[in-house]
Amino acid sequence: MSMPAYIELGGIAVAKNANLTINQDYFRLGASTFPPIRMSNGDAKVQTVWGAKIRTVITANGWRSSPFDGLDLTQPLLLKCGAPKTIASAANAIALPTARRTDANFEPYGYAVVNGSDVESPVVVDSDIATVTVVPGATQYGVHYFPEITVYAQLNTSTNIGEVEFDWELEAEEI
Q1: Mind listing the pLDDT tens digit for each residue in 137-165?
Q2: 123 and 154 part of one domain
Q3: Domain span holding position 35
Q4: Which one, of 66, 18, 51, 32, lies nearest residue 167 by Cα?
Q5: N or C: which end of the chain has fewer CB within 10 A?
């Protein structure tokens, strides 16, 4: 049985068993004013031209160097992310982004909040709506999903020759 890819860029995968410590951070991209602009009456306004794009930084450290050196990073590439993002709601039916992984082991999964604690709850996905199974006493529901986005990327690498240890960082912005 093959190990599922943890992350994948341009069809090149990093497996879960790659002997690497991998971290992935997400940042929201958008063209909007922040802090808000103040009107003459003191009201705050945020002007948004576009938004809801993702910037992500993936860092890795361990015994395996980056497998992405052979990719043409001047071209858009498909990035299958390994860290989940979460959408929470008071309702158990939650709209998911279409730009998400659907491959095995990366399906959306859900939870309900009962008495201030998360309780795992099964999810059924129909198109882009995830329905979390109702849990008695739940006050909130949530779904974790894994983004799959087309990006421009930049790769930085470093090698500790004495320890034979590799560090690499992949910066990517959604197109």
Answers
A1: 999 999 999 999 999 999 999 999 998 89
A2: no
A3: 1-83+147-175
A4: 66
A5: N
